[in-house]
Each structure stands twice: as structure tokens, then as C-alpha cells.
Amino acid sequence: MIIRQCIPVLLAIFLIMGCVGAVSAGDEATTDGTSQPIIQPIKPDNVTLEFSPGQITTSTEVTFTFSADNATIFDIDFGDNSTKSDVDTGITHKYIADGQYTVKLTAKNETESTDEEIKITVNPEPIVASFTADPTSGIAPLDVQFTDTSSGTPTSWKWDFDDGDSSTNQNTSHTFATNGTYVVNLTVYKDGVDSNTSSRTIIVNPAPTTTNISSVVLITGVTPPVYGAIPVSTASSDTEGISNVTVSWNSNPTKFAAETQYTATIVVNAASEYVFNITKPTVSLDGLTMSESNVMRNSDTQLTITYTFPKTAAKVNPSALLSLKVSPGTVPLTVKFSYKLSNFDNCTLIYGDGASSHLTSSSGDITHTYTTAGSYTASLIAKNVNGTTYDNKSITVNKIGLNAVFTASAGSGTAPLEVRFTDTSAGSPTTWLWDFGGLGSSTMQNPSFTFTTAGNYIVKLIVIDSSGATDTYSKVITVNALVATSTPTPRPTETVSSLSMSFGTGNINPLILSPVDIIKEFVQLFHTIIDMENYVGASNQTNMT
Q: Facing residues of 415 across strands?
């Protein structure tokens, strides 16, 4: 009975749920047809657009920075027929012409956009005057070259030389006729901007009072070249007004050679406030009067004198020729030396191992035995009063016997294993015999072999030289079997069953029931409750019995 008394209450609850479901189903109908709510587009807002610096000229790089809420990319129109699309939050731009420009920024997302505009003013690039002067000081009359180095691309120039003269050329030269201090001004002009002026000071000194140098110039210290002597580079003069005398030689020798003709070039410089007052003064070189053709007046303060001396005396250096005969071999190694000499006073043959021989004849043969392996340089040294002559030869002495050695590209690995063998034996072998662990052989110097079966293999090399001497070397190569890999049996894929409920004919959330479904569920619940009550009643009656 208690359960039946609860039925009206349960029916009321089910009806309320059905109404709520109907309302929810009505709300769900406000969709895009896919059971999802329609998202209203969001327009970008709080758009900001800024630039720097504040003062802009045609030479200025302008930096634009911008931001916006609900925006992912930006387009910008710089107002000078140039644009940039799909930029982030900043960009730079340079305006090539002055004027006022409207910059437009478009902030965008997937569906909407918002514009923001600012105006900027671009002024013409200012001009700054500057120039160079070469030279900036000197003796009158002074010629100076002026070169414009102004910035800002001026279009016209005005030079004021401070001596009553001027010029409108961009680059110019000017001669200052009298001594004094001059302030040279350059003013540059350009339409739309202020002119600008730069100044430099030019100092013009009066010509110094000069003293004439004697018409006869005396030079000493340039003596005829002598074989073996070191050439002089300076000379002296007893003439008043000469500051220094320099000497150079036509072949620039470190020492004078035999039977060679040399020409000396002698430069004579006047001392301060002295000048050569005649076109070609008379020059005496170590008491020898120079011809006018040998004297050149370079300027008021410099002379150049050239003179070719007779050939130097014939003095011959010794000659030395060394040859050797040696067969390849090991210590002790005997070498036969042959030599030829001429014009020598004494001669020594140094063998390079601490031993030497004194030679007295102009030719001959001599032998020497090297008892230690190594590399040696034998030198034949011939001397006379004029110099020393050398002739060198190299000798290599090998160590005793053979020494078989080889390297392998791999000492171990998985079959099939290819190994490259490289012979590094010492002692000049001529024959190579390889045994690859009983699997094969080769007579190559540097063979390769592929091991196809797992195991440890002793590779042996026998080397033989031209004399028949032999040596042996072995190395173990380990070949591993290929490891088989097993594929694991995949486990059954666990499946998760899901209960799908479908109510009505529309795409309605399965948790929300229609009123008709509520009634159906209630009727089923009602029958279940009656059955339970009957079962309980029968059980109680049985217990009473």
C-alpha cells in the first residue's frame, strides 16, 4: 500500500521532467543544424596604432607598433601606395618623399575586421654642410683642393674663400696668393629645408728666406764596387746646405758579385732654407767630375746623380758536385759517394751521422757504412777565399729485417661481416700471403673478405721481401650470429560497450526525455511496482502460514 501511495508523487516528478525536457529541446533547436549552438562573430576591438620617432624625415626609418583584442593578423596601408599584409604586431617603413600620410591599420580575425587610422607628417631630410681641404697649410702661393662631403643631398653650394673670391661649384680648387689665415666657408642649400654652413681654416705661410747652394757639389763615400763587399746606402758631402745623401744600386745587391757592372743612384737633398740656384750644378763624385747627363735637378731642393761603375773583378767561388750509389737495405748499410770539385782550397764530406772525411783530390769515390737506422743528410762542403759551396744528398737507412703488421676495418661484428685489411708492414715486403681463417686466401697487399658464418677466425699475413726474408702476423676476427627477433602476439583489444539511448525522432540529447517517453517509462515503472508489491504480499502470507 505504501508503494501505491507514492505513485501520484512519482507521476508528478516525471511530468515535471518532461516539461523541462520539452523546454530544453526547444532551446536545442536554436542551433546551426548540427546540434551545436551558433557562435556569434566577435569583432576586433581596442585597436591601437602607434609610431616612432616623433619627428620623421625622408631619411628616417619609421617603426609602427599595433595591437587589438580578438585579432590574429593585421594589414597596414602606409599611405604612400605601399602596403603590407598578414603582419604580427610591428613593422618598419621608410618614406622616400616628404608630405602628410594617412596610415590605415586593419585588425582581422577569421570573420571580422576593424580599421584604425593615424596621420603622420614626413619632413624633408635636413642638410649638413661639411668639406675637406688638401692641404690645410703651406707656403704662398698655396693651391688647395676643396671637396664637398655634405649630407642630406644639397642642390646648390656657395664657397667663400675669405680673400674676396667665391665659387658655386660643388667641388673646387683655389690658390691663396699671399700669406695669412683664411676662414673658408661652405654654405649648402636645398628647397624646403634650412641652409647650413661649415668652415675650415687655411694657413698660408710666407715663402722662407733661402740661401743658394754653391754651384759645385762635392760627394764622397761612393767608391767603386768590389766583389764580396756590402754596397753603401749613404754618402757624405762637404758642401754647405746639403742635408743628406742617399745611395741605391740598380740590382739591389746584398753583396757585390764578380764581373758585374753596377749603377749607383745618388739623391742629394738640400737643407732647410737652402736651394739649388742653378739648373744643373757641377757635381764631383769622389774626385770624379760628373757629366751634365748624369745630373738631374728634381726641384729647388733635390738633385739626382746616376753613375755606372766598371765591372767588378773576376773572383770565382768553388764548385762542388756530390752523387751517391746505394741499394735498398737495412743496417749496416754501405753507401758509395762520388764527388767532383774545382777552384777549392779545402773540402770536407760530412756523412750526417757524426762522421766526416777531408778530401784533397778534385774527384773520386769514397764509401761509408751507416750502422744505425734513420734518415741522414750528407754534405759536400768546398771553400776558397771567395766563398763556400755546398751540395747535399739524403740517405734513408732501414731497420733490420721485416716486421709484418696489418690493420682491420672491423675486429668484430654480425654476419655477414665485410672486413678491409690494410698492410702496414715495415721492411719493404714484395709478396703478401693472406689466410682468412681457413675460409679463403689472397695475395693482394690490401684485400677485403666477407665472413658469412658466425665464429672466431684467425687471419694470418705472411710477408716476403726481395731477399726471401719472411715475417708473420695474426689477428682474430669475431663474427656474431644474426639475432632473430620475435613478434609479440597482440592482446585482444578491450572494447567498451556504450549504451545509446534514442528518444523521439530528432537529434535530441539522450538525457532529456520527451513527455510521451516520460509516460511510457512511468507505466513500466508502475507495473514493476505492482509486481513487487504482489511478491512481498505473497511472501508475508507464506510466512504467516
A: none
CB 427 within 8 A of CB 402: yes
Of the candidate ranges 13-22, 265-274, 276-285, the one whose mean pLDDT is the lowest: 13-22
Confirm if 455 and 513 have CB atoms less than 8 A apart: no
The tally of CA atoms less than 13 A away on the side-chain side of residue 17 is 15
Query: What is the C-alpha separation between 173 and 150, in angstroms, rounded?
Result: 17
Is pTM beyond 0.85? Reply is no
Tell whether 381 and 354 lie within a shared domain.
Answer: yes
Task: Note the pLDDT of residue 447.
Answer: 97
Residue 146: is it exposed, middle or buried by C-beta count within 10 angstroms (0-12/13-18/19+)?
A: buried
Measuring CA to CA, which residue among 67, 32, 36, 34 is closest to residue 50?
67
Count of structural domains, the chain: 6
Query: Using CA atoms, how far apart are residues 538 and 141, in angstroms rounded to an integer?
Result: 146
CB atoms within 10 A of CB 484: 5
Confidence label for 15 from pLDDT (cuts 50, 70 and 90): low
Strand partners, 97: none
β-bridge mates for residue 458, sequence order: 476
Distance CA 402, CA 416 (A): 33
Pick the closest to residue 411 from 463, 451, 440, 438 (CA basis): 451
- What is the model's pLDDT at position 408? 95
Whether 30 shows a pLDDT value over 50: the answer reads no
Under 8 Å between Cβ of 105 and 47: yes
What is the band of 12 on the pLDDT scale with cuts at 50, 70, 90? low
Judge whether 29 lies within some domain. yes
**Residue 55, domain CATH:** 2.60.40.10
Domain check: are 31 and 13 in the same one? Answer: yes
**Residue at 329 is within a domain:** yes
pLDDT value of position 197: 97
Q: Is 513 helix (H, G, I), strand (E, B) or coil?
A: coil
Q: What is the pLDDT of residues 416-470, one digit of tens each?
A: 999 999 998 877 899 999 999 999 999 999 999 999 999 999 999 999 988 888 8
275 within 8 A of 212, measured Cβ to Cβ = yes
Which residues sit opposite 101 in a β-bridge? 120
Single residue among 143, 171, 205 that ends a domain in this structure = 205
Mean pLDDT value across residues 285-311:
91
Do 161 and 232 lie in one domain? The reply is no
Domain boundary among 308, 334, 369: 308
For 229-256, give the secondary structure using H, E and C.
CCCCCEEEECCCCEEEEEEEECCCCCCC
Grouping H, G, I as helix, E, B as strand and the rest as coil, residue 526 is: helix
515 pLDDT above the threshold of 50: yes
Q: CA-CA distance, 378 to 361, in Å (whole number)?
A: 18
Question: Is residue 27 over pLDDT 90?
Answer: no
The residue range of the domain holding 281 is 211-308
